[in-house]
Design a protein that fits this description.
Blueprint: H1 7-14, E1 20-23, E2 26-32, H2 36-53, E3 58-62, E4 65-70, H3 80-90
Antiparallel strand pairs: 1-2, 2-4, 3-4
Length: 93
């Protein structure tokens, strides 16, 4: 099981992420697109990195808006895995 990060580690790592916020024990990112088709295309681009990492985000789609939540459920909070995947997702258009 991945090791939980301390509050200090979380705050330091969060400084290196653009477009993500820490809310409780989760990382949140909201992306907005021109339309539903672009939103779904973006979500489809998340499949391969998530599968490769063996770490899967919670995804909510509302027409042209995609909300991504990362947390390590089995560890009960944020781990390095969450920040690694957030960094990869940040570079996906």
């Amino acid at each position: 099981m991945a090791q939980l990060l301390s509050e200090l580690e979380i705050q330091e790592k969060a400084k290196n992420l653009t477009g993500w916020t820490v809310v409780g024990k989760k990382l949140l990112c909201q992306r907005q697109f021109k339309n539903f088709i672009e939103a779904i295309a973006f979500v489809n681009k998340l499949v391969e990195p998530a599968e490769s990492a063996g770490h899967h985000p919670d995804i909510e789609i509302s027409y042209n808006q995609v909300n991504i939540t990362l947390t390590t459920h089995d560890a009960g909070g944020l781990t390095q895995n969450d920040f690694n995947l957030a960094l990869v997702i940040s570079h996906i258009d």
